[in-house]
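Predict the holo structure. Ligand: manganese (II) ion.
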Amino acid sequence: MQLTPEQIDAYRRDGFLVFPDLVAPAEVAVLRDEVERLWDVEAEGTVREGARRAPKSMFRLHEADGANASAPFRALSRSPRVLGVAQQLLGADDLYLHHSKVNVKAAIEGSVWPWHQDFGAWNLDGIERPDMATYMVMLDDATELSGCLYMLPGSHRWGRTEAYLDTSTAYRLWSVRHDELIRRMRESPPPVAVTGRAGTCAIFHCNLMHASGHNLSMGDRWQAYFCFNTCANRPVDVANPRPDYVRSRNWAPMQPMPDAAVLAAAAPVLAD
Ligand code: SIN
Ligand code: MN
């Protein structure tokens, strides 16, 4: 998938792009089956919340091994629509995933993701340059009521803002000081709600300020995320590194797979 010069300009200006209905309904169905298959797996990379203990996040779907390994998610992460787009925006062929995850945000119980820049945490992981981008895939229709993502256009051009550890939800997140955020938001265009049908995708710069609210709707809001880094920008050693599922040490360049590999990777339906 070749981005147009207008899309590349918009990414540089706003820090994100949205691709409506890019993943076909049949592919979304395969990916959703995978989320259901992994739902009750007790993996190190699964964080749960709420009375129903639904996953808030399930990490490390893209590798060939591990408890949350998923062949369809692995294929999607390497497809021209995903890897190919990240290669164009990061200006490099050799990319790897710092991590991948599905955020479930369960009906009624799924909680907020406070305003943050992904690079706030990733810089602390030992990654020196903000040559990174996050690719998001909606696996449900995302609405404002169900807690869609909000982007603050142009905020990636602020550079990295000092991060603090927000411990208010089940997933401890490096967020941004509220006084600093309010000061910046007063001077910024209003946040953009990234809503859309299942299959809609977006990619955003690692310094783009983003957040999402509590899910007040009767349905879950499932979204997959692939966080790309250039192989040349792999982390330096840090004291007490975060676990592999969130700070990958697989720095081998990802090998592309065709778009058709997502459906081909679906678990076979067994005959009676
Ligand atoms: C994230 O920023 O990592 C996730 C936000 C969301 O799923 O709403
Ligand atoms: Mn984020």
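Residues 116, 118, 210 surround manganese (II) ion (ligand 2) (CB under 6 Å). DSSP finds seven helices and 13 strands in the chain.
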